[in-house]
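Continuing the batch. This is chain 6 of the set; chains 1 through 5 are on the previous pages. Same settings as before, nothing changed between runs. Recording input and output for traceability.
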Amino acid sequence: MPIRLLCLCFSLFFALEPARAADLSTTIAAVKPSIVAIGTSLPTRSPAVIFFGTGWVTGDGLSVITNAHVVSNAIKADQKESLGIVIAGEGNTIAFRAATLAGVDPDHDLAHLRLAGGPPLPALKLGDSATLREGRELALTGFPLGMVLGLHHVTHRATLSAITPIIIPSIGARQLDARAIVQLARPFDIFQLDGTAYPGNSGSPVYDPADGTVYAVINMGFVKGFKEAAITNPSGISYAIPGRYVSALLQRAAQ
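Output for chain 6:
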């Protein structure tokens, strides 16, 4: 390759990198108002609000999507508590809005909440997850370690590394729990990402860095050893539920 042409290629590469970073910066600012925390509120408790995971607003601005296991953990709490979303503002400012459970898809670990009154929130567009291919650049935003680090939006870049079956191979039958057995009977493909998701990222939207279109929902991190190792020794591998299952859950609520 001629030296002049080689220099031109390098110039184009380095010119594109700042543009990509600028696109993501703009997109993060646009999606943050739509990404909320999922928690419960009890005024007589300290702290009054407890965080369980991340969710994001879609549809008419009153629908919130998160993981089913996030909601399950929340509703196991004291019945006097109110389920809802926590809107993170500037600094330590937060606002709690009550919500009701509109639908659950336990097979794909998804839950649909409906805000109980109040103005609609900015909604994220749900894209066609079937169009994604391995190698696609993506981003995810949520509240990793929310009760430890505070409710501050955190964004990670990620690449769609593989489209793989939901079941993670077990060493032996003793490692198969009831949920894994159900998944063996009804397997489906899941997105494997090279971005690191921490506890608290469950329910985070996985979106296009250029325009914020959501294509998947963070489900779990593949961690080494015990759950606590996700903090000290993350694997760098995460999994996300394709958005087509979100579409199906929302359609059931509309029927």
